[in-house]
Write a structure and sequence with these properties.
46% of the residues lie in helices and 20% in strands. It is α+β, with helices and mostly antiparallel strands. Helix 4 (257-285) packs antiparallel against helix 5 (295-324), helix 4 packs antiparallel against helix 7 (374-396) and helix 6 runs antiparallel to helix 7 (374-396). The protein is elongated.
């Protein structure tokens, strides 16, 4: 026996209540996201070490070292714990040069660690001497770069010693002050992340299991299940992997692979959402939209989404492997490829988001002529627009997909994707009967496998 979806038969009063509760849920999520602990903690050091935090040498305020008066070196220390997956050191050079320049310098980095905070014995972890490019654009602060990236936490404390020279080994005159940020994962945020992912994973497994049991109670074969239920089943399966059952292993197993898998699961889920949004918008416009059968447009969109999935996967794979090569210096030549790949992936992501916006906008006048599917359109469109609008906001923050997210964005998308799917699952939950005015022989939005209310 074929089944239909709750949204096609829900009373108007229930629909309004559910819509309001959904909007309140996203609003509370937004508040919670920006009240969460910071994503990182940092220790900041400066070679000048001025009491007022300036980067202009003043003997009465600064008790550090002037880099351009000789070979400068100093130790910076950071303490880690079991909740830290990685830590890294970011360098921000300062200069008094008024003209832009690109200078190759030599940096010697010594990384040491000790096993216990109270221990006095330090072990040498690595000792590198590398040439690096520093690009300054006629301003006081030059662009920052990563000096050390460590994703294998084996000591309780680390310290870094850095020396800056010209490539000939002579004192460096063009750089004045140098600021160091030693950054690590925030333990409070990591605890929240672990608990949140575990709870969401359990809910997603229970939800999918209950949905599959409900379908099996109502139908005999998957082939006669309507499109809504098939799509929901696949999305809930993807959501389980988005919540990543392997995430706790990242704290036990070192290396880039598990972190890459976490990003890959989100890319796959995002791609699945893009396909779902596109198909839902088209199906609601199907019977009165000549573009529905335009295979060129359809396959162009499919190709765009597939291209995003491939480029994003390559971007994260290359980035994860590159981060294994510690330390990462300056602006090496291979970064050109990463920059091109980053901007290409971002441009395609933005194109897909714009396409979804346009598709939903064009669907509006068609839907208004068909009162029977207004509830479906409203309940699908409102939460979808919330997620899509957040994509645009995050891109203005320099983030798309899982790349470059701040703590609030991470919380918002981790909970937001789950909340979105809970809302959609509730609306399109499989049922056999509707309320008054139901004809059990009418097609469901162009689908002949389920009933809708007669127009």
């Amino acid at each position: 026996m074929a089944i239909s979806s709750r949204i096609d038969f829900i009373p108007y009063k229930h629909l309004v209540i559910a819509t309001v509760l959904s909007c309140i849920g996203f609003l509370l999520l937004l508040v919670f996201s920006f009240s969460a602990p910071p994503l990182h903690e940092s220790n900041r050091f400066s070679s000048y070490n001025c009491s007022d935090g300036s980067h202009t040498w003043d003997p009465s305020k600064c008790n550090g070292i002037q880099l351009n008066t000789g070979v400068w070196s100093d130790y910076m220390e950071i303490q880690t714990n079991n909740l830290n997956k990685e830590w890294f050191t970011v360098v921000r050079p300062y200069t008094t040069q008024s003209k832009a320049f690109l200078k190759k310098i030599r940096i010697n980095t010594v990384l040491e660690g000790k096993k216990h905070p109270n221990s006095k014995k330090w072990y040498i972890v690595s000792n590198f001497t590398e040439d690096s490019l520093i690009a300054c654009y006629g301003v006081d602060q030059c662009p920052s770069f990563i000096l050390v990236f460590e994703d294998t936490i084996t000591y309780s404390n680390y310290r870094v010693k850095a020396q800056f020279l010209t490539t000939m080994g002579t004192p460096l005159n063009i750089i004045t002050d140098v600021e160091f940020d030693m950054i690590k994962d925030s333990p409070a945020f990591t605890k929240l992340e672990l608990v949140m992912k575990l709870i969401l994973l359990i809910i997603s497994v229970i939800l999918m299991s209950y949905h599959m049991i409900t379908i099996q109670d109502k139908i005999v074969m998957w082939e006669i299940c309507n499109w809504d239920q098939r799509a929901l089943s696949l999305l809930m399966f993807a959501l389980i992997f988005f919540n990543n059952p392997f995430y706790p292993l990242e704290f036990l197993v070192t290396g880039w692979f598990l972190q890459f898998i976490d990003n890959l699961f989100e890319i796959v889920f995002t791609v699945a959402m893009f396909f779902y949004w596109y198909q839902m918008a088209l199906r609601m416009r199907k019977e009165r939209d000549p573009l529905y059968d335009n295979s060129t447009l359809r396959f162009s969109f499919y190709g765009l989404v597939a291209t995003y999935g491939i480029l994003a996967t390559v971007l994260y794979a290359v980035g994860s492997i590159r981060n294994e090569m510690s330390p990462v210096y300056g602006i090496p030549d291979h970064m050109t490829f990463m920059q091109i790949l980053y901007y290409m992936t971002g441009a395609i992501f933005l194109s897909i988001v714009v396409c979804i916006f346009i598709l939903l906008t064009f669907a509006f006048p068609i839907i208004m002529e068909r009162p029977i599917i207004r509830p479906r359109f409203m309940f699908f469109t409102i939460p979808t627009l919330i997620i899509v609008t957040s994509y645009l906001f995050s891109m203005f923050q320099g983030s798309f997909g899982p790349l470059g997210r701040s703590g609030p964005l991470f919380i918002f998308y981790t909970f937001g994707y789950n909340l979105y799917l809970w809302i959609i699952v509730w609306a399109f939950w499989p049922i056999e009967k509707g309320f008054g005015g139901v004809s059990e022989h009418s097609p469901i939005i162009g689908d002949t496998t389920g009933p809708v209310i007669d127009e």
